[in-house]
Amino acid sequence: MPNNEYSIQETAELLGVPIPKLRRWDEQGILVAVRTAGGHRRYPKDLVDQIARTGVEDSAISRELATVKRSLAEKHRIIQLLAESEGRYRDLVETSHDLIWATDAQGSFTYLNSAAHEVFGMAPKDLLGRCFFDFEVNESHIGNRRFLALLKRHGEVKHHVTHLRTRDNEDRWIGINARVTTNERGEIRGIRGTARDITEEQRALKRIEHLALHDTLTELPNRHAMQRAIEMAMESGAMGALLFLDIDHFKYINDNFGHRTGDDIIIGVGSVLREAVRTTNGDLYRIGGDEFAIHLPNALRMEAIQTAEHVLSAIRHYRLMVESDRVIANLSASIGIALYPFHGSSLPTLLSNVDIAMYQAKDLGRNRHALFDQDSGALRNTHKRVHWAKKLRDAMDGDQLVLYAQPVVRLSDRKVMHHEVLLRIRDDSGAIIEPSSFIEIAETLGSIQEIDLCVVDKVLKHIDRNGLAGKKIRYFVNLSRISISNQDWVDRFMKLLANSQAQPNQLVLEITETAALSEIDVTLKFIRRLKELGCRFALDDFGAGFSSFYYLKQFDVDYLKIDGSFVRDLASDNGSRLFVKALNDVAQGLNKQVIAEWVEEPEVCDLLMQMGTRYGQGYLFQKPQPLVDGYRGMSRGLRANTS
Predict the structure, then answer these.
(1) Rounded Cα gap, residues 230 and 346, in angstroms
(2) Dist CA 451 CA 425 (whole Å)
(3) How far apart are CA 294 and CA 245, in angstroms?
(4) What are phi and psi of 244, to 5 degrees?
(5) What is the pLDDT of residues 316-332, one digit of tens each?
(6) Pairing mode, strands 368-371 and 333-340
(7) What is the C-alpha to C-alpha distance for residues 508 and 491, in angstroms, rounded to an integer?
(8) Over 60: is that where the pLDDT of 640 sits?
(9) What sign does the dihedral 342-346-347-348 (CA atoms) show?
(10) Residue 515: which pLDDT band, with cuts at 50, 70 and 90?
(11) At residue 634, does pLDDT exceed 60?
């Protein structure tokens, strides 16, 4: 028998308790015995000796034993809770899709959960003693060295992105959150953190960045890429040439053969131009519609003309088979040529002059090139400016500016939530002139500021007359970059707002992506000032150049309006679907609402809802209608949200 135990007989003698009572105590849990392999009871010697020394009666012994029992039970409960807590922690850590890791003070892994296999392609045990540096794509480790420097300086780093390569040579983009652990002297003991595989998000971002600088139909660099390249060349003081090319009579082809054939021609001409430009030092761009541009760095007049003639010849020889028995041939183009800095020392001037040269080539009979001519261009511009200056002044003086409205609909139930205000001119004959005919020239003339104020004034008066002030309905109003950059115009705008019963939050001020990015500081200042009053903002034609993705966090806008060209092709174009889905994801993360323009087909509406788009606008719901008293946007069963 062990020295630290008593038999039941010895225990009975020491305590003066009958053996049957000891058995009952054992069964009742008062004084529990330990059983041997042979079934004999044994009692802890120290406990029996302590009870024997007290010399108390049975009831006191029972209470003492009960206290001991409760103490042991509480310890057992605490140990069980700790075990359960540790089990839950291990289950959460080991089943997490995120990598959970810890390192020593030198950054070598001391622990990784099972997600390590997905990130590094290796089991956690095989990674112990290694570090992130071992897998970084950039051999100089600049990114991770910067990460460690920030960690040592601040003690914590969030959302650090690094590019790794797994053991199987697969690329992985990882987002890391980390925090240092220190001892009582403040010395770093190690690092703990989490990491998440964001490879798909990064690939989507790369795709968006590609789309930002490329045309989706031809995969050629787009207008934004062209402008960036020319601006860089001009800033360096270099010389060069810019060619604008427009396919002659392309509208006829679209109208008679269909838009699909038109797209095929754009793709085909793009291929022809690629081959034609390959032998030059030039870059080819598709800048919209049937227009292409060729940038020839360091080229002078003769090289630009030779390139234009070579391109015209290549297009003349292009053939497109339409169906089995029809061929589209004899295509031609008109090319404008402008040289910098001779025909423009700034990008806007150069673009304007090369555009004038292209239209001069058309005026001269098409199927030819024309070098920008200062005299003919000035004459052309003068005639156009004089005509529209008088027409716009007469329209404002004669109250011929009329407002139309198109509802912005909640896609889930087709309920009208807001309205976009659209400007038109009613001429002397009663015909309605669309803004595409006059807005651009109004900006060059400077009359756009008066037009914008007139539109705002008419909208505010409509709200006042119809008792809509304070209602939960908003009117989207387009504003020109020229207007918002003029302090006097902003002051007059605010005065109009102050004198109206309408609440500032009933106006959503739309600024196009191009306008917002042309003068970012001016745009940000205007948004901040009007936001303080309660006005809301929308970024219109979003995606037309994609460039605003780079600045989206800076623009405190409430709505993003997807450029209609992406919405229109949503059902048939995978690139458009990718862009719209990415935009919805980005907008959701930035707490901004997305409005899709040009919604014309039920299938497109369904796709938009699947992608998370909340609002839509287009002919599927209602065509623009005159904004007259009593207008509610109620046609085709739509309900106005004026409660």
Answers:
(1) 9
(2) 11
(3) 8
(4) -105, 130
(5) 988 887 665 666 777 89
(6) parallel
(7) 18
(8) no
(9) negative
(10) low
(11) no
Query: Quick one: angle between helices 8-15 and 45-54, nearest 10?
Result: 20
Q: How far is CA 50 from CA 55, 56, 57, 424, in A?
A: 9, 11, 13, 103
Strand partners, 55: none
Residue 642's pLDDT band (cuts 50, 70, 90):
very low
Q: Which two tokens stand for residue 8?
A: 């039941």
Alpha helices in 96-222 (DSSP H): 116-120, 124-127, 142-154, 199-212
The residues of the chain that CATH labels 3.30.70.270 are 212-372
Strand residues in 454-535 grouped as ranges (E): 474-478, 507-512
Residue 279: strand, helix, or coil: coil
Q: Where in the chain is the domain with CATH 3.20.20.450?
A: 385-637
Cα–Cα distance between 512 and 561 in angstroms, integer?
9
For residue 507, which phi and psi values (nearest 5 degrees)?
Answer: -105, 130
Phi (first) and psi of residue 325, to 5 degrees: -130, 15
pTM of the model: 0.45
Structure tokens at 344: 């423009």
Least confident of 3-7, 304-308, 475-479: 3-7
CATH code for residues 96-197: 3.30.450.20
Length in residues, the chain: 643
Confidence of residue 334 (pLDDT cuts 50, 70, 90): very high
- CATH class for the region spanning 385-637: alpha beta
**Cis peptide before 341, with omega less than 30 degrees from 0?**
yes
CATH superfamily label, 212-372:
Reverse transcriptase/Diguanylate cyclase domain (3.30.70.270)
| DSSP letter assigned to residue 561 | E
User: What angle do helix axes 574-589 and 602-610 make, rounded to 10 degrees?
Assistant: 40
Of all residues in the chain, what percent carry a pLDDT higher than 90? 26
How far apart CA 265 and CA 271 sit, in angstroms, is: 10
299 vs 453: CA distance, rounded Å: 45
284 forms bridges with which residues in the sheet?
294
From 408, 395, 401, 362, select the one nearest 250 (Cα to Cα): 362
Residues 597-631 pLDDT 10s: 999 899 999 999 999 899 999 999 999 999 888 77
Class of residue 459 by CB neighbours under 10 A (exposed 0-12, middle 13-18, buried 19+): buried
Query: Which of 43-57, 278-292, 372-386, 483-497 shows the lowest mean pLDDT across its residues?
Result: 372-386
- Note the CATH number of domain 5-91: 1.10.1660.10
Q: Identity (one letter) of the amino acid at 512? A: T
Q: CA 430, CA 626: separation in Å to the nearest integer?
A: 14
Q: List pLDDT tens digits, range 244-286.
A: 999 988 877 776 677 788 888 899 999 999 999 998 889 999 9
The CATH 3.30.450.20 domain(s) of the chain lie at 96-197
- Give the residue range(s) of CATH 1.10.1660.10 domains in the chain: 5-91
Mean predicted lDDT score pLDDT of the chain? 83
C-alpha torsion sign, points 604, 609, 612, 613 = positive
